[in-house]
Amino acid sequence: MEKLTLSPLFSPTSIVVFTGDEQSSTQTAYGKSLAAQLRVSGYTGRVSFLDIGMSGTLSELAQSQSDLAIIALPNEQLAAALEVAARIHSKTALIVTSGVDAALARTLQTIAKQHGIHLLGPNSMGFQRPGMALNASTLGPLGQQGSLALVSQSGALGSSILDWAVKNGVGFSTVVSLGASTALDVADVLDFLAQDRATQSIVVYLEGIRSARRFMSALRAAANVKPVFVLKAGRKPAGSTAALTHSGAIVGSDDVFDAALQRAGAVRVRTLVQLFTAAKGLSGRNLPAGKRLAIISNGGGPGVLAADWTNELGLELGALTSGEAFALAKELSPLAHLESVLDLGEDAGASHYHAAVAACAKGSQIDGILVILAPKPELDTAAVARALADLLPSIGKPLVTCWMGDERAAEARSILSRAAIPTFRTPEAAVDAFSNIAAFHQNQQLLHQTPPPLSPLAKPDLEGARILVESVLAERRKVLTEMESKALLSAFHIPVTKTMLARSASEAILIASQLGYPVALKIDSPDIPHKSDVLGVALNLQNAATVRDSWQDMMATVARLRPDARINGVTVQNMSGKPRGRELYIGVTTDEPFGPVISFGAGGTMIELIDDRAIELPPLNQFLAQRLIDRARSADTLGTWRGAPPAHRESLEQILLRVSEMVCALPQLREMDINPVIVDATGSLVVDARIVIDHVPRGTGDYPHLAILPYPSDREEEWPLRGGGSYIVRPIYPNDAEMLQDFVRRLSAESRYMRFVSTMRELSLKMLARFTLIDYDREMALVAIRRERTTDDVGGFKETERIIAVSRYVTNPDFTTCEFSLAVADEFNGQGIGSRMLLSIMDVARSKGLSQIEGLVLSNNVPMLKLMRSLGFEVRRFEEDPDFRLCVRAL
Q1: How far apart are the first and last CA of the chain?
Q2: Where in the sequence is the domain holding 530, given as residue range(s)?
């Protein structure tokens, strides 16, 4: 039953059009443009033009039933036209208008929802599907056919890109304009494009999102199978000056958006030029496996410029090995230089370029190829372009070109564009193109991380932490004291300095004597977020006299600088005992709309000035924690640094994992400032901390405060096998792909056909990616894992795991029902595993609030139909195909 929900919208077989009377002065400019484009585009499906008066016979109206209703009328007629579309059972609708206010938009969306119509618009400029010769837009002439999809929240920008694409040889599978107040949003369109076979890559112009969880879910699903590049407008300053902690003051939504895109496996571009560059780069056929770019040129200057920009973007210069270079040199001019940049010499011709590109295509240390050509008086630039076009089918790596000059390069650029070889006018733009597609490969590593809410470390005291948080909120406070903050950190086993509150100088002396000198004093006030600003910190106090004097001076100074501040007293704590330690910072802030984010960077009193910060969305695992540390500039200080031995990075990673646990387990946590955390060769220690909490935000489902749902580790169960042994049922991991492929290969031909209705012997790479990297919020796949002992090559034993069954459900577009599938290894049939897997997947669906589960079973699959009836499913005829039965059960 796998289906594309928006297929009737973007791949309609019949269309009804409401554009008004062409002879009337009331027809809108959009209506005229749409009618004209539909008539000349060449669309071969049935198109009917209707008016909202529904003139015509009943038989004519019955024939008007359609997949898509296109409406381009004055705003006061839109609701009536949508009602007419509903009466003739249109499955989807497109409203092409501008200036529709929020009230009318809500009315239109309500009508569409009541009748089950998927609505694109209002305030949309429509869409194009060049492969179907369908131009249902006012974006201009139909674009060239290609494999690139464009989704834009700006109609003007979409129109500009289409116009630019004509002369740059870029073709499109889909172009969608999403305006303000449209019912379908970016996430809905991404869901469609992720499964659209005509689309190989996607570029998005984004101005805003409605739901971070929904957006991240759709973006991750799309980027899992296709490159996705995003240009976001509306960047804003970092944070608010009224924030209560350092993290709130310096983490801006644009930084968080960057982190979110990387985590989703997509690539951020910053300018419209870069978006054009990305679009052109994606017109090539191959994606890189790394960031090593080989540069081939016929002049030193352009090659050096390209090499400089390669280093600037964090790429690596790909080069031939000595053996590969020696073999290539025999085919080139004696003037050629093959070290670093491959300079073929000023006398290089088509044969030389052909040989160099062929060598780089086979090069073991090269991931992509940039060919630069500077025009020479005797050089046939078109011949070089034809040589590359002929060679392209045998190249399995990205190939980008830079044909410099203008008039003498025009014919060559045309040849390259027709061959789908991206070509640019400057070396920097060509390097940018490769950088974009290389970044996609790198971000895929982040996409495949699915951490659980709790790390593998010792279990935290969750109950104690929740009691502490609730007691503070019960007192109508939101800012934890330093002692409360450190107590909360201690509940998650984060090492902190011993801290006690003193309300007088004599108490401070007594506490210091118990803790042992040297000590530090810090003012304790809910109204003073940054203690150093009011001289509220005294360090390295060696005796009672200095403690007393520091107390008195501190209280007098704070009273003078902040007479309005409430003072609880002064905290006394041990010095860290890490004189060679590095001062770092770990923080949490809550972003709108992505929720909590974790930041890491340089700490101390000058963190805003230094502005060294790396951002990541929770939950984290060790890989993500390591990447987070590596992205901060201060990571360089963690090695051998000015005579100090290397810092204990693992202890830092563990603190980050613990902070991730806090964020997942405590939705009340709004901001946190751990500054500094001091790390040296022996470990890490939190010296100061400040935490802000608030009541739990509204939301439904699991972890509603997180943009990325953690791996549902609570769904792991162990079950006995008949005849001895056991198996584990757990949610699928992205790295289960190899085991899943092995499971499919072991199935008998009959079992494979019963599950996939196909004679295929294994899953394609895209199917593997689709089945293993899933959004646990919208679907679930449970695998039954059996551990087996086998002998190895030297006569010993090794333990391996294999998948013996898979059950799955996917939520339907109505978000109340779901569709299931089930497969069991042939040798484990008849042992009750199928029943257990279906009951388990039904438990998950029920916990998500779904009301019904359904699935298709082949009519001749007697054992499966018997299982369905035994589990209480109703087996019905499937009207659309008599070879299937529809099995339905209420949850």
Answers
A1: 19
A2: 462-572
Residue 521 has pLDDT above 90, yes or no: yes
Residues 723 and 839 placed together within one structural domain of the fold: yes
Burial readout 429-460 (b: 16 or more C-beta within 10 A, e: otherwise)? bbbbbbbbbbbbbebbebbbbbbbbbbeeeeb
pLDDT digits (tens, 9 = 90+) for 366-417: 999 999 999 888 888 999 999 999 998 888 888 999 999 888 888 898 898 8
Identify which of 744, 739, 761, 887 has the alpha carbon closest to the alpha carbon of residue 824: 744
Residue 225 CA, distance from chain mean position:
12
Q: Dump the DSSP string for 344-364.
A: --TT--HHHHHHHHHHHHH-T
Look up residue 707 and give its two tokens. Answer: 């943009």
CA angle 847, 850, 855 (to 5 degrees): 115
Instruction: Cis check for the bond before 518: say yes or no (omega within 30 of 0).
Output: yes
Q: Structurally, how many domains does the chain consist of?
A: 4
226 DSSP assignment = S
Q: How many residues does the chain have?
A: 891
DSSP code at position 318: -
- The encoded tokens of residue 65 equal 């039933």
With the C-alpha atoms ordered 338, 339, 340, 344, is the resulting torsion angle positive or negative? negative
Which element (helix H / strand E) includes 746?
helix 737-746
Strand partners, 685: 678
Question: What is the average pLDDT score of the chain?
Answer: 87
Distance CA 502, CA 231 (A): 53
Residue 277 lies inside a defined structural domain of this protein: no
> pLDDT tens, 303-321?
999 999 999 888 999 989 9
* Phi then psi dihedrals of residue 463, to 5 deg: -65, -45
Alpha helices in 196-315 (DSSP H): 212-223, 246-250, 253-263, 272-281, 300-312
Judged against a pLDDT cut of 70, whether residue 236 lies above it is answered with no
Ramachandran sector of residue 872 (left: φ over 0; alpha: ψ -120 to 50; beta: rest): left
Is there a domain that residue 779 lies in? yes
Residues 597 and 526 in one domain: no
CB 685, CB 678: distance < 8 Å: yes
Element (H, E) at 666: none
**Distance (Å, whole) CA 580 – CA 603:** 15
| 246 CA to centre of own chain | 27
Give the pLDDT band (50/70/90) at residue 488. Answer: very high
Residue 30 vs residues 37, 75, 100, 137, 544: alpha-carbon distances, Å: 10, 12, 14, 9, 82
Do 477 and 427 share a domain, yes or no? no
What tokens does 258 get? 């960057």
Beta strands in 374-424 (DSSP E): 399-403, 423-424
Token pair recorded at residue 26: 């009331």
Q: 462: Cβ–Cβ under 8 A, 6 or more apart, which residues?
A: 491, 665
Q: Give the angle 684-689-695 at the CA atoms, nearest 5°.
A: 130
* More confident position, 373 or 249: 373
Residue at token pair 């004696």: 334
- 36 SS3 class: helix
Please tell me the distance from the alpha carbon of residue 500 to that of residue 482, in angstroms, as a whole number.
9
Cis peptide before 882, with omega less than 30 degrees from 0? no
- Alpha-helical runs (H) found in 450-501: 462-474, 482-491
Report the predicted TM-score, pTM, of the whole model to 2 decimal places. Answer: 0.83
Same domain, 480 and 416: no
pLDDT of residue 670: 94
How buried is 495 (Cβ within 10 angstroms: 0-12 exposed, 13-18 middle, 19+ buried)? middle
Tokens 């003078």 belong to: 560
Give DSSP secondary structure letters for 58-93.
Answer: HHHHHTT--SEEEE---GGGHHHHHHHHHHTT-SEE
Residue 663 inside a domain? The answer is: yes
Compute the CA torsion angle 587, 592, 595, 596 (nearest 10 deg): 0
SS3 state of residue 53 = coil
CATH at residue 662: 3.30.470.20
Give strand pairing partners of 729. Answer: 717, 784
Q: What is the CATH number of the domain that holds 307?
A: 3.40.50.261
